[in-house]
Task: structure prediction
Amino acid sequence: MDINGKNIILTGASSGIGLDLLKKLTRFDCKILAVARTIEKVDFEHPNVTKYPCDISDPKKLDGLFDHALSQWGHIDIYIANAGFAYYEEIESPDWEHIEKIYKTNVFSSFYAAEKMKAINQGRPFRMVVTASAMSFLSLPGYSLYSSTKAAIRGFAAAYRYELEKEQKLQLVYPIATRTSFFKEAGSGTPVPWPSQEPEKVSDAIIRGIEKDKNSIFPSALFNSIRIMNGYVHFLYPVIAWMEAKKLYKWNAGKK
Ligand SMILES: NC(=O)c1ccc[n+]([C@@H]2O[C@H](COP(=O)([O-])OP(=O)(O)OC[C@H]3O[C@@H](n4cnc5c(N)ncnc54)[C@H](OP(=O)(O)O)[C@@H]3O)[C@@H](O)[C@H]2O)c1
Result:
């Protein structure tokens, strides 16, 4: 899809991948609603960018975001569900609040936004882009809940795509570990998994992916090769998971 002339909602615009993507999107002639909870953190000004504070884990607030965009623009062409977070933890005691919070933010809000995009765009093209993760494929120790949220998005997409009309797309992005505030937010001293990359690489890949109408966007060619090879050599994922398990045990021992 040509990004020029489009109305775009971008969540998670205050940091990391989202903030870099926001800056790059302003190179196009498009209007952007930049969304985050702490909107003052969106440290970027541009005439085509409007900032909108919203906790996307709350469906009423998400309704408010859509209502606001529709009242300003009349229609929404591209919704980029990029906001998300992880807990880095070795699960030791049951924690319903953790489960609920991460699912509301990473999963429910993306599903709900995808449903809304379909409902408001009957008979017209749209793009729904979700920042999933390499962990949608390869679950890593320390990220049980997080990996499951990103795998859920992949499961949803595989069926939902058949319900879309021509020129309507759900595009998933599968970044590997990306050096942003994500790891600090995940827990104090969280080690960065291998391999890792810079957020600029992810935002470039997202823009290319939207322009080329890709269903799956892999910002790391290395991970994509590992993913394909693991289909033949099934021990590749377990070897990487074992390397990360050792980091988790060390991290956990350091906490005690
Ligand atoms: N970094 C990685 O290694 C990595 C790898 C694969 C996938 N991803 C995914 O990439 C996306 C962006 O991550 P990042 O690395 O850029 O992390 P980040 O730097 O921590 O940014 C996260 C963004 O999400 C927003 N956010 C979090 N919870 C929110 C909520 N309830 N409502 C509204 N906004 C919320 C944050 O803003 P506020 O706190 O102000 O709301 C912030 O703008 C996430 O979906 C993440 O899961 C990251």
